[in-house]
Amino acid sequence: MNYKLIALDVDGTLLNDNHELSEQTISTIREVSRSGAEIVLCTGRGPQNSIPFMEQIGLTGYVISHNGAATVDVESKEVVHQFAMDSKAILAYMDFFRDKRVHFDVNTAFHMYVDSVEGMAVEVRSMYENFLMLPAALPPLTEFSEPIVKVTAFDHADVLDKVYEELVLWKPEFNILRSGEYFLDLMHPDASKGNALKQLADRRGVRQEEVLAIGNYFNDITMLTFAGLGIAMDNSPLEVKAAANEVTASNNEDGVHAALLKYCLS
User: Fold this and answer.
1) Which of 2, 37, 56, 224 has the highest local Cβ count within 10 Å?
2) Signal sequence: where (predicted)?
């Protein structure tokens, strides 16, 4: 099959556990791109800390960021589509996180805000540094001039498990998603990697069966099941592997390289 649109998750998929992109994977992605396929990063990161990987590889096109909440043109930095949240409805969730002493950030397409930059715990600041981000102080929501697209909570996995169990009992107006072992996202109910990838495929005139997607976590399931070929990393939870058509090597073993070599270059 000649795949025309290839969606790659970033953390746990494209990058190894040291947040590095291997030269072998870069070389293979470039070769796939030269063969005519369009590469899009489909990530929970924002565009400001995902576009640099596209530039490192030497690619233009699009990034699907914030787990599908905002799609951005790599060169122009234009937001071509975003799912805006109801800012008034966010307030109750922010108060809930504060009451539980769970750290959270509030995101527009290009900006990230937290309650207190100076008061962040060491492990929280380290997390942002690993993801190449430093948030700004959160202003009143009434002062936002851009749509809010995502609210992310960060804490230990067992804490977020309990938070998730409580929040789903609210019959929430948002999509509540475990986007990583230490992350929980709130987004517009229609926002997902799968929906954003479908919209981009339609925009680019690509049929569903011509889409290949590679990912490793629960937030990747919608894009793996949308794609004509969905490939899970070997470091994925069992539920993610079950949702995929195939499984490749882990992110520490250049699984993206192996999958692209097998399905796009063989």
Assistant:
1) 224
2) none
